[in-house]
Amino acid sequence: MLTKSDVRGVCAFVPTPLKAGVATGDLASSIDLDATISMVDRLIEDGVHMLALAGTTGEGAALLWDEKREFVAAVVERTAGRIPIFASAIALGTRETIRQMREFQSLGVACAIVCPPFWQTPTVDNAVGFIDDLSESVPELPTMIYSNKFFFKFEFPTEFWRRVASDSSTVIATKVSYDFRPEDYDVAGDRIQFMGGEGNFRAVHDTLGKEAVAAWCTSAAMGPEPWLALVEAVAADDRSRVEGVLGDIEAVPAPLPMDEFHLFSSYNVQLEKVRINAGGYVRCGGTRAPYTDLPEKWIAAAKQNGEAWAKLCTRYRAEA
C-alpha cells in the first residue's frame, strides 16, 4: 500500500487521448488506445515517477464511466507496476466516489484522486466527513486530495488539513492547486505529502526545502526533462540548481493571456490540449464536449507555450 514517503519525484497529470472522428453524440469509446500506450511508454522511459489520470487535463469530467475505466485499465496494464498510477475518482457524491475507488483498487491503481463533493459548496465538516467516509469504506486504497479551489468551491482551510491528517485517514498526498500556506504543512505535513507544481512549486519549496520531494505537472506531457532536473536538484539540496531550473520553467511564455487569468477556470482543459499538441511530445487529439470553445488569443498563447516548452526540453536533453 502506497504511503506518503512513496510519493516522490515527478507526477505527470496526463491527457486522455481522443480518438479521431468521434462525434459528440456517439457514445462509443473515444479513447485512442494506441496514443495512450505510446504516451505511457515514453513518459516512463524518460523517467517520470508517477502518472495521474483523468484529472482536469485528463478530461475526467467529460469521460463516460466506461471510458474512464477503459483508460485507467489500459494505463495500469501497460505500466505493469513500473511506477505508481493515480486515478481520479472525483464525482458529485460520496457513494459514486466509493464505487469508482473500489473498481480502481481492483484494477491495480495505487492511489485515488479525490476532492470534496462540490454540487453544494462544502463546509469544513462536510469535507472532512467525506474523507472519513472514503477512508472507512475503502481502507486499503490511499487517496490524494486534489485541492483545486477554482473548480471545487472550497478554500481548503488549515482546519481542514488538521482534521484529515488523522490516524484513521487514508490521505497520503495533496496536489496543491491553491495558494500554499506554510501553516497547512505545519498541521498535516507529517502525514500528507504537499505536492507543489506548476505555478506554485517555488512557494512550496521555499517552505519545505529539500522535503519538497514531489512535483505535479501537466507540462510533462510536452516533455518531462525540466521537472526531472528540478526534483533531482531538490533531492540534492542544490539550491542554486533549483533556482536555475525554476527560472527556466518560469521563463517559458505563459500558456494563457495573463490579462485574462480570471477566465482560466473556463478554458483550462482546452488550453492544455492545445499546448500539449503543440509540444509534439505526445499525440492527444482535441477536447471532448462540452469543453471545445477557446478564443483565438488563448489558442495562440497555448501554442506559443507548447513550442517554447519543446525547445526547453530539447536543451535539457542535450545537456543531459
Give a verbal description of the structure.
- With 320 residues, this protein is an alpha/beta fold.
- The chain has a single domain (4-252), classed as Aldolase class I (TIM Barrel, Alpha-Beta Barrel).
- It is built from 12 helices and 8 strands.
- Strands 1-2-3-4-5-6-7-8 form an 8-stranded parallel β-barrel, surrounded by 5 helices.
- The longest helix is centred in the last third of the chain and has 24 residues, at 296-319.
Which bin fits the share of residues in helices? 40-55%
Strand order of the largest sheet: 1-2-3-4-5-6-7-8
Q: What is the H level of CATH, i.e. the homologous superfamily?
A: Aldolase class I
> If you average the pLDDT, what whole number results?
96
Low-confidence stretches: none
> Strand content of the residues, in percent?
5-15%
How many domains? 1
CATH class: Alpha Beta
User: How many distinct helices?
Assistant: 12
CATH-derived architecture:
Alpha-Beta Barrel
Distance between the termini: 34 Å
- Tell me the total number of β-strands: 8
* Broad structural category: alpha/beta
Rg measurement, Å: 18 Å
